[in-house]
Amino acid sequence: MDSLATLQSMGLTLPTPPYIVGLILFGIVGMWAYWRGKKAQHPHTKWLGVALMFYPYAVSSTWLLYGVGLALCVGLWLEVGK
Fold first, then answer.
1. Residue 4 placed within a domain
2. Which structural domain range is residue 34 located in?
3. Would you call 2 helix, strand, or coil by DSSP?
């Protein structure tokens, strides 16, 4: 029995390599932001880090992953630059 074909027939697909790279990249940036916000007691930075770590689980398309990730990173850059 081919399990990949069974998953595809149920409508499930494996993530593409660019999606996995984005997931890892934004997760690392999110962990950094969370640690920095927690250490400096900046709640906005901390919550932007949490959002960067967990939003990829809510989006399924690669372009949306990068779009939302870049928007959150811009927000983080503006917050840290204060």
1. no
2. 15-80
3. coil
